[in-house]
Amino acid sequence: MKDGACPAVREVLSRVGDKWSVLVIGLLGAGPRRFSDLRRGIEGISQRMLTLTLRGLERDGMVTRTVYPTQPPSVVYTLTTLGHTLLDPIKELAAWAEGNRLAIQEARARFDADSEAQGRTKPTHRPA
């Protein structure tokens, strides 16, 4: 990695690696969606978090927002060409997660049991 590239790469990875961004990009991979469709399709996301995620993805050039002059206005989100380039890596990551979820659950159970036996507390990070 080139000198000075690390902060820029970290910034990009924090956007595209965010759980909400991954889910939004995955849903938009099937085609354009309205805000309400996205919200229904992503369990646990708040309206505010979805708005912030979409704005960030739009700012980064991954998503376009189109407003149609209907009453009330209709807003549709679509992946850009750049956004589409993330679909394959996201699918690969999802396949890896699915293929390894049981091993990870078993590792967590062992870690938690060992930690409890040693009187240590569990990590506070809760996966989504």
Quick structural summary:
The protein has 128 residues and is mainly alpha-helical.
Number of strands: 3
Instruction: Kindly report the CATH topology of the domain at 5-85.
Output: Arc Repressor Mutant, subunit A
For the largest sheet, list the strands in their spatial order.
1-3-2
User: Biggest β-sheet, characterized?
Assistant: 3 strands, antiparallel
- Determine the strand fraction and express it as a percent band: 5-15%
User: How many helix segments?
Assistant: 6
The helix fraction, in percent, is 55-70%
What's the CATH C level of the domain at 5-85?
Mainly Alpha
Arithmetic mean pLDDT: 88
- For CATH, the homologous superfamily of the domain at 5-85 is named as Winged helix-like DNA-binding domain superfamily/Winged helix DNA-binding domain
Notes on the structure:
The protein has 128 residues and is mostly helical. It has a domain at 5-85: Winged helix-like DNA-binding domain superfamily/Winged helix DNA-binding domain (Arc Repressor Mutant, subunit A, Orthogonal Bundle), CATH 1.10.10. Helices cover 60% and strands 11% of the residues. Strands 1-3-2 form a 3-stranded antiparallel β-sheet. It is elongated, with a radius of gyration of 18 Å. It starts with a helix and ends in an 11-residue tail after the last helix.
